[in-house]
Amino acid sequence: MAFPSAMPCSPGFAGPEAPDRAIEIRRMVLRPEWRGGGRGRAVLQAAVTRADRVHNAGRVWLRVKPQNARERKLFLSEGYVEDHVEKTFGTA
């Protein structure tokens, strides 16, 4: 599946060559005007479908900043589970 430039975001992948076929979805960011209306969910589902069909993913994982409640809620509603929470320091 191609992600055309008109898409609100274009998710990146890391790890397709990993022995366990685990793929990390990196930086799924939507433009503010594209937020809401299920667009983030649609992009996530398309990214997971691509990871499976194109890269034969054995597992898909992602990182979410602890303070990003909206994103965490989306991922949990899609069946993801929290593996662990990392502590961060500073403002970055």
Detailed description of the structure:
With 92 residues, this protein is α+β, with helices and mostly antiparallel strands. The chain has one domain. The chain is built from 2 helices and 3 strands. It has helices at residues 39-53, 69-77; strands at residues 12-14, 22-26, 59-62. Strands 1-2-3 form a 3-stranded mixed sheet, with helices on one face.
Instruction: Tell me roughly what share of residues is in helical segments.
Output: 25-40%
Overall morphology: globular
Note the run of SSEs as H and E: EEHEH
**Unreliable stretches:** 1-10
Strand content: 5-15%
Number of helices: 2
Distance between the termini: 33 Å
> How does the major sheet shape up?
3 strands, mixed
Task: Quote the average pLDDT.
Answer: 76
Strand order of the largest sheet: 1-2-3
Number of domains: 1
- The tally of strands reads 3
Given helix and strand content, the structural type is alpha+beta
Radius of gyration: 14 Å
A few lines on this structure:
This protein has one domain. Helix content is 26%, strand content 13%. It is built from 2 helices and 3 strands; from the N terminus they run E-E-H-E-H.
